[in-house]
Amino acid sequence: MTENRGAISHYEAELAELRADPELAVEYLKAAMQSLDDPEDRAAALLALRTVAEAYGGLAYVAAEAGISREALYRALSPKGNPTLKTLLAVLKTVGLRLSVEPMSSAAA
């Protein structure tokens, strides 16, 4: 078996890209947040926010800065998580983002 020296996982590459390009992180989260409209697919948005949190310091750092326990953050941003608005806002603020509202497109209405 050939050893891949210097190779990084897809996840690590994704984290590096999100960390290097804040606009990419915003678009990544925007796309994932659209899944919140579908009760069967809400996990995508939570996992995307978790990935961005990992990219911007890691879950332990984000939890400490957001004023919540690391365990609570792991639970809130798990596929079956159900974060409170307070938690969601604190995490977004910690990674330099904020919650925003925009009208639904006429096609989706």
TrEMBL record:
This is Addiction module antidote protein. The lineage of its organism: Bacteria, Pseudomonadati, Pseudomonadota, Betaproteobacteria, Neisseriales. Pfam families: dnstrm_HI1420. InterPro entries: HI1420, Lambda_DNA-bd_dom_sf. It comes from the Bacteria. One of its GO terms (molecular function) is DNA binding.
